[in-house]
Design brief:
Length: about 575
């Protein structure tokens, strides 16, 4: 029975297992590429702090962990409160999800003796990594159960395939599974499953589980408090049914009371921690990070090349189209799904750093995929009966699957996906490729890269002065010149060399062209030259700039070390003007 969806589920399991265990096992990676690094090390820190070091307030063990394992460049997992104690940045939900695998690793490390029982050695890395694969398997199992409750086997199979094979869920289940999104995906899938089971046969047990799951979602990411919308609205398809739902909850208040009690009990863990460590019940731990509630970033979050959801998971466009079919044919599923997704997207896209740092697309959308799978499956259910639509959708899914595999590879091994830096010019120059010319990387900084034949080349400047920048000499003087008439482009080149490359993108030395009018900069182009050189290397690099249409009276080139303490040399500086041919 239901062999298509069963096979799709097994195929998804195999892909996740292969990707996470054989293609890119993060537990074998060092430092900031390890399983327990960056944000994950912050979610997880509750566990070693409590159960190994017995120091949740002062975190005195932090320096030894940073020096030995380097999960982050500096201690970003907590901040020092005015009380003198350290407050962990992230809420405790993810630590609870990780705890079974932490305890398994700790027992093994303690008994075996080969590895340090310090919370970050190899047994902990692999146990957390493999454990989160298990969460992914559970989440997909629940999702299949949900979809089969309302849709056909084939439509369910197609949805499972799209989510695992053609979206960024693959990366955040198989490779970056220890991030919160994988666990939250599973929580939401289990929550929806319990919702329809509860309304089929209300019991106190299901009510308690619903409260537990919504509480765990909120404890993992406080904005997931909107998960409460799902049990409240599930199955309502009209105003009359809304009235009946209100009446049901009034007449059966014990269900709501037990769900709310369990929810509050789970969420109170965080408030108790804050009160114990700081003396305050509520602490905002994200500093200057926050929300732009009045100006949500919907357009950027959906279609920006920097991190747009539809740009890096285009298959998920089908989920939005699916809401049309959900409204027309499955009204009992429409309102709860649509209202939840609308609220979810508003919260998600209101975050100031809407691209979510080093994210493959909109990673914060992944936990909503169990809800989005419902309109997606409705679309497949209603369109696959039409041959032309079926062919178009199949071709689109195949292309999206290949694109997703390419993106996943480039994000981890290929290097052509640069999280948080992407733009249209760089993506178009690299999409589908596995090897590109080295100077294509300059498109990440300067999209005016000329690759055609040059015409009417006119030498403008030749400077043989050696310019040395380093820790104590960050900025060169500006070298000014004017552009010849009828010139469309400026190309400045220099020979650069360094003994040690700067790897921090924000500190990479810059080669800059500026256009002035009356001592006011009207245009500026730059490239980060460390993208183009290696340790001990000397090579020529160039920067292009299109002549602006606005009037200008002079141009300058200059160099800036951007805060790096690495020494870099610039020599044989040349500038020429040319027109495109």
């Amino acid at each position: 029975m239901n062999k298509f969806s069963r096979n799709a589920l097994l195929a998804g399991y195999c892909l996740i297992l292969f990707t996470g265990v054989f293609y890119y096992p993060k537990w074998k990676q060092p430092a900031t590429e390890a399983t327990l690094s960056w944000d994950v090390s912050g979610y997880y820190l509750y566990l070693p702090a409590i159960f190994i070091y017995h120091d949740l307030k002062q975190c005195k063990f932090k320096d030894s962990v940073l020096n030995k394992y380097r999960p982050t460049p500096d201690f970003q997992q907590a901040f020092q409160h005015s009380s003198g104690n350290y407050i962990l940045k992230y809420t405790a939900g993810q630590a609870i999800l990780l705890s079974p695998f932490f305890f398994a690793a700790h027992i093994y490390a303690t008994v075996n003796g080969t590895y340090l029982a310090d919370g970050f050695s190899y047994p902990y890395q692999i146990s957390i990594g493999v454990g989160m694969l298990l969460y992914a398997f559970i989440g997909l199992w629940f999702l299949r159960k949900i979809l089969l409750r309302y849709f056909t086997d084939l439509a369910t199979a197609l949805s499972l395939f799209v989510i695992v094979f053609a979206s960024n869920y693959l990366d955040y289940s198989a490779i970056d599974g220890a991030m919160t999104h994988n666990g939250l995906f599973t929580i939401y899938a289990a929550l929806i499953f319990c919702c329809f089971r509860f309304y089929e046969k209300p019991t106190l047990q299901f009510a308690a589980v619903i409260g537990f799951l919504a509480g765990m979602a909120t404890l993992t990411r406080p904005t997931e408090v909107i998960s409460l919308l799902l049990p409240l609205l599930w199955g309502i398809k009209s105003r009359q049914e809304l009235k009946l739902r209100i009446r049901f909850l009034k007449n059966n208040s014990r269900f709501g009371m037990i769900a709310l009690a369990v929810f509050v009990l789970i969420v109170s863990i965080q408030f108790i921690y804050w009160k114990w460590v700081s003396g305050q019940w509520i602490i905002y731990t994200y500093g200057e990070e926050g929300f732009d509630w009045l100006h949500p970033h919907f357009i950027n979050a959906l279609i920006s090349f920097k991190g747009g959801w539809f740009i890096y998971s285009p298959a998920m466009i089908l989920t939005i189209i699916g809401f049309v079919y959900l409204f027309r044919y499955y009204r009992q599923l429409f309102y709860s799904s649509f209202i939840f997704i609308l609220c979810f997207c508003y919260i998600c896209f209101s975050w100031k750093e809407w691209w979510y740092g080093a994210s493959l697309g909109q990673r914060a959308m992944i936990q909503a995929y169990p809800v989005l799978a419902i309109p997606l499956t409705a679309l497949f259910e209603r369109t696959f009966k039409r041959k032309l639509l079926r062919l178009i959708i199949i071709v689109f899914i195949v292309l999206c699957t290949y694109y997703n595999f390419w993106l996943t590879h480039q994000a981890h091994k290929g290097g052509l996906f640069r999280a948080g830096e992407m733009n249209a010019a760089f993506l178009m120059a690299t999409i589908g490729r596995y090897h590109v010319p080295r100077d294509v990387e300059t498109l990440l900084d300067n999209t005016e890269r000329y690759t055609g034949q040059q015409s009417s080349c006119i030498p403008i400047l030749k400077n043989t002065e050696l310019i040395t920048l380093g820790k104590d000499n960050q900025t060169s003087k500006e070298i000014f010149f004017t552009a010849p008439p009828d010139c469309g482009w400026i190309r400045a080149s220099a020979e650069i060399s360094t003994a040690q490359k700067e790897w921090d993108m924000w500190k990479m030395p810059q080669f800059i062209i500026k256009f002035y009018r009356n001592n006011v900069i009207i245009k500026s182009n730059f490239i980060r030259v460390s993208r183009l050189i290696s340790d001990g290397e000397t090579r020529m690099v160039h920067i292009d700039a299109r002549i602006p249409e606005d009037h200008f009276d002079r141009i300058s080139i200059s160099f800036w070390n951007a805060g790096s303490d690495k020494q870099i040399l610039f020599n044989k500086i040349n500038v020429l003007g040319f027109t495109s041919k």
